[in-house]
Amino acid sequence: MTENQNQKKLWRYRWLSCINELTSFELQRKSWVDNSSTNPHWLFVEFMCSYFDDLGIDNYYEYQLKQDWISEAELNTIQHWHKLLDKYNSPTNDDYDVKAILKDKKWQSILEEGVKVKNELSKIVSKEENEILFEEIDFTQYL
C-alpha cells in the first residue's frame, strides 16, 4: 500500500467517524452532558474541530478531492450538510453551552439533514466503511 493509500484510508476512517458522531443525537445527548467525562473529545467544540480542523476540510474538500480521498458523488452528497454545519452558531454564542445546543431547533435540523446524508453516503461507500459510519459508539470506554 502506498503512502497516499495509507493516508486516504486513515483520513476516510476519521471522516466517517466524524460524520457518525455529528449525526448521532443520542451520543451527543449522553456524552456532551456527562460530568464524569474528562476527555475533551466528547464536547460539541471537539466534534466540530475534529470534523473541520483535524480533517483539513476548510476549503470544502478541495485537497481531498484532488488527492482522490473523496469522490465527486460523496462530495455532492455531503456538501449541503457541510455548509449547514459550517454556518452553525450556538444559540447562546457559547459553544460549551451544550444543553442549549441540544435543544436548539437549528441544531436538530442539521442533525436530521446529517442523518439523511449518512444514509445516502451508505449507498456509495464500501461495506467496511458503512460499519464505521454506523458504529454504535460507547463514549464511556474513552473516559
The main sheet comes to:
none
The rounded Rg comes to 15 Å
Helicity range of the residues?
55-70%
Given the C-alpha coordinates, what overall shape results? Answer: globular
Rounded mean pLDDT is 94
Strand content: under 5%
- Structural class per helix/strand content? mainly alpha
Description:
With 143 residues, the protein is an all-alpha fold. It is built from 8 helices and no strands. The relative contact order is 0.18.
Give me the secondary-structure topology.
Layout: H1 3-22, H2 25-32, H3 44-54, H4 62-66, H5 72-87, H6 98-103, H7 105-122, H8 127-133
Helix pairs in contact: 1-3, 1-8, 5-7
Summarize the structure.
Helices cover 64% and strands 0% of the residues. The protein is mainly alpha-helical and 143 residues long. The termini are far apart.
Summary keywords:
64% helix; single chain; 143 residues; 8 helices
